[in-house]
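3.2 Worked example (two chains)
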Amino acid sequence: MANREPLKPFLLAFPGPLRDRLVAAVLSGEKVSTSGLLAEYEAEREELPPVGERSALIDSDGREIAVVELTEVRVLPLGSVGLRHALDEGEGYTSVAGWRAAHEAFWHSEEMREALGDPSFTVDDDTMIVAERFRVVERLG
């Protein structure tokens, strides 16, 4: 994609082993959805991405690995996340409970609390999340 417009970064987790696993799952086609906190968009004063937006999937070294296109963006309470979304995250979840436990651990991590500017941040069934579906449209490099 020479001479293309710069793309917004598509960041999964924080740099490190988790991001590396998630990027690999996207590239393999196992991961076609992701979840974020609406509070994170609010803390960063970011608009929600529109369906059709293309972004650059970024690895732990900051390299653009692929171009992904959003196919769906939903805002819903954490307690409403269904099994299809959990399975499509491509991280081996077989239940919503397993998906939720892993995501709560991440969202309650020191790194996430620091990113949100709230050292005691916690989630519950009413916490609003942003559920995104995407597809890889091009591999880079």
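3.2.1 Second chain
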Amino acid sequence: MPVFVKKLLTWGFVAFLIYFVAFRPDGAAQMFRAIGAALIAMFQGFGDFLTSLMT
């Protein structure tokens, strides 16, 4: 993918994120909570896997 397209998509995503947080803060907070919960569950599952390998 050309560098210009990557830059354009990155700045578009940043602009959308700022717009989303500014005009829909409740929705943005719920989305970040859901992402955080998914990451925690993923890492906890990975930790459980490693623990069961060691025992």
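3.3 Remarks
Residues 24-55 form one domain.
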